[in-house]
Amino acid sequence: MLTTAPHLYIRRPSPTTAEFTVTTCPPLTVPLRLLLLTLHLARALLFSAAILVLYARFVEPSQHHDHRHHYYHHQGCCTPIFPFQLFLAGDVPQFLTTLLQTAHRSQPGIFLSQLTAPLPDWAVAAASLAAAYAAVCFRLHRTESVLVLRGLGIQTCTIRGKWGGCFGTQTRFIPTEQIRDVLINEAFRGFEVRYYLIVVVEGEEDVVVLFPGLLPRRRIVEAVWRGVKGCLFEGEEDGKG
């Protein structure tokens, strides 16, 4: 339900521009949107918990409690200051500090501190950083795209693996004058013949494979090949004719 086999979306913003996107994201129905929203909230909670554990273990013990973080003293009385008041006042660093202190003293914060108390510092740091990285960078769906601009070239966008949300996105632009041809090639993957789309670039020994991570089925490869050739070379072919 959360993922599906790679399928194709075609977008044509103008007669000379076409974008071909292959993704494993299924159509966004209402139940799927609600489920994805729940997953995003869970990732936000995981990231918040990781930051809170790091703060409680490595920052809070070294800080002396300062009542100025929570109170304004005026004419002998103490007025509580809430985190959002600091944010509205423009004191963002103090807002974040007060927010972390408040969360640390809450019941979930106390529970996390007690849960991680028996662990050594290196284990807490490694587990928290891994959880924060997973919450931010893990991608449930995989998407690769090819943008064709007639007279300019082809731009490819590839995401390396499910953990490529932060650092694994690779984008390349190939000018039209360097494109010798766009072809469909075939290769064996195990006992299966797979068809894939390649761009032959002038001056390069290696070809550029389109959609290298997903390697969609032949039907999608042929549809993209026809669309890329038609958008990229249609004007040239008409001129030659």
Automatic annotation (TrEMBL):
Cell cycle is among the record's keywords: no
Keyword Transferase found: yes
A GO-annotated cellular component: glycosylphosphatidylinositol-N-acetylglucosaminyltransferase (GPI-GnT) complex
Pfam families on file: PIG-H
Molecular function per GO: transferase activity
Domain Phosphatidylinositol N-acetylglucosaminyltransferase subunit H conserved: 145-212
Record key words, sorted: Transferase
Pathway, per record: Glycolipid biosynthesis; glycosylphosphatidylinositol-anchor biosynthesis
Domain of life (superkingdom): Eukaryota
GO biological process per UniProt: GPI anchor biosynthetic process
InterPro entries in alphabetical order: PIG-H, PIGH-H_dom
Entry similarity comment: Belongs to the PIGH family.
PANTHER family for the chain: PHOSPHATIDYLINOSITOL N-ACETYLGLUCOSAMINYLTRANSFERASE SUBUNIT H
Protein name: GPI-GlcNAc transferase complex, PIG-H component-domain-containing protein
Protein's organism: Chaetomium strumarium
